[in-house]
Automatic annotation (TrEMBL):
Name of protein: Peptide ABC transporter permease
Keywords: Cell membrane, Membrane, Transmembrane, Transmembrane helix, Transport
Keyword field contains Membrane: yes
Keyword Cytoplasm: no
GO cellular component: plasma membrane
Regions that span the bilayer: 9-30, 102-123, 135-159, 183-202, 241-262, 292-312
Cited Gene3D superfamilies: MetI-like
Cellular localisation: Cell membrane
GO biological process: transmembrane transport
Principal location class: membrane
Length: 319
């Protein structure tokens, strides 16, 4: 296991190097000068040269990239172009906890509801329960998340006009704090983000469970006279989880990246807004910082899924 983790850690470093270098190339060869845009139409040439030197933008690409890697080793993502002198770490720290809160609650809904619904549908295949649940899952899964978000907003407006239920006109609030106003504000985006993933997990877990139930060892267990509950939970369920673990691990990696549409539509001040605003403002240090965070999340999700593989099925060895 230690050898496996070392290999994965090396892979993490390689992915970060590739992603950050590509981001650097895009920023370096961009047609616009962020310092010049920051200073306006009539920049002071001396001040512009001073800022270029302060940010290291007058150095060659490889030297700038090396400086970034050195700062990254010290967990320093640099300083923002738009808000001069403000550390990128502080900017990301303001949005990352919000995105993580949204993503983790959504993942809990996706797995906690989607997987049981899929398993129950598989155990009651071709019944009305299976037909209704999978039909609803198909409809929800077919809807893009931003369309579902807009429909939910229309529903909120209708509830407000019909029943006088007012949507709280506040910001997201502090992460992991839940007053009644916070719950009202956070509930809709969390449900929307969790709904599409929940539908996907429901359909995937149903397919996986049906495939396992057709295996010979399950038929043998039933032929031996084992109770159906023992057959399902002791033999079928654990093996049906194996293909799901990969998807769950990848979902962990994309918790933040997958919420861009949701955060934008519901005006949530998370990583999505920070990233898109920094792209609009050519604030490359912030873009590079969010890129590193997202890359680490994706690789960590893959690592988590591989580790869980070995825990669920000891026959799978980490080589």
């Amino acid at each position: 296991m230690l050898k496996f983790l070392i290999k994965r850690f090396i892979g993490l470093i390689f992915v970060i190097l590739c992603v950050t270098f590509l981001t650097f190339i895009i920023g370096y060869y961009a047609p616009s000068n962020p310092i010049q845009i920051m200073m306006g139409d009539h920049p002071n040439q001396a001040l512009q040269a001073q800022l270029m030197h302060a940010y290291g933008l007058d150095q060659p690409l490889l030297q700038q990239y090396a400086n970034f890697l050195i700062r990254l080793l010290h967990l320093d993502l640099g300083t923002s172009f738009k808000t001069i002198g403000r550390p990128v770490n502080d900017i990301i720290a303001g949005g990352l906890p919000i995105s993580l809160e949204l993503g983790l609650w959504a993942l809990l809904i996706q797995v906690g509801i989607g997987v049981p619904v899929g398993i129950i549908s598989a155990l009651r295949a071709n019944s009305w329960t299976d037909t209704v649940s999978m039909g609803a899952a198909l409809i929800i899964y077919a809807l893009p998340s931003f369309i579902l978000a807009i429909l939910v907003q229309f529903l909120i407006i209708w509830l407000d006009n019909t029943f006088g239920w007012s949507w709280p006109n506040t910001q997201w609030g502090n992460p992991w704090q839940y007053s009644w106003t916070d719950i009202q504000y956070k509930l809709a985006p969390i449900l929307v983000y969790g709904a599409t993933g929940m539908a996907y997990f429901a359909r995937l877990s149903r397919t996986s469970m049906l495939e396992i139930l057709r295996q010979d060892y399950v038929r043998t267990a039933r032929a031996k006279g084992l109770y159906e509950r023992a057959v399902v939970y002791r033999h079928a369920f654990r093996n049906a989880l194996i293909p799901l673990i990969t998807i769950i691990g990848l979902s962990v990696g994309f918790l933040v990246a997958g919420a861009f549409f949701i955060e934008r539509i519901f005006s949530i001040p998370g990583i999505a807004g920070i990233t898109l605003d920094s792209i609009d403002n050519l604030d490359y240090p912030v873009v590079q910082g969010t890129t590193v965070i997202l890359a680490i999340g994706v690789v960590f999700g893959n690592l988590l899924s591989d580790i869980c593989y070995t825990l669920v099925d000891p026959r799978i060895k980490a080589e």
